[in-house]
Specification:
The protein is an alpha+beta fold. It is built from 3 helices and 4 strands; from the N terminus they run H-H-E-E-H-E-E. It has one domain: Heat Shock Protein 90, CATH 3.30.565. Strand 1 and strand 2 form a beta hairpin.
Length: about 110
Amino acid sequence: MPTEQLCSWELPLDPARLIVAELAANATVHGRVPGRSFRLGLTVTASATLRIEVTDPRGDQLPAQVRVTAGADPAESGRGLLLVEEMADRWGVRTGPVPCKTVWAELDLGR
């Protein structure tokens, strides 16, 4: 469980668990292939950064990294990554190994 791991590392739960929930939900909805699931990875780097990675088997379905301006009304789908963009210090997408993709987000821990 991500929450248990964050607690064992003595890290704050939020916004990390919210980002995990959003990336996992996106992988379930947009990265689903029958019989295959997604993989979640949590890493703390030497530079005090928490990296959250969700890998799914749909490398052909890449999320757009589009910044929405204030007052814009995003489509019903896609609001989750706007939340990730607001909560994370950085996020992005890495393709491979074929047929997979990994959506990642980083939080600077400020230790």
